[in-house]
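Per reviewer request, we include the raw input and output of the structure prediction for the construct analysed in the revised manuscript.
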Amino acid sequence: MSAEEKAKAKAEQVTGKAEKAVGRAVGNKRAEAEGSARETKGDLRGAKEKAKDALED
């Protein structure tokens, strides 16, 4: 299950980064902020998975 969660985290990071870039390119501050938030959420999810892995070892 951990690999699935890591994949979700990576997908969220990539989606957020793309949304942020598109928002910045078209001058849409809301889309840029939402992309940044999604990217941060993915970063946090990835950090959680890394911590879980460290505790299992």
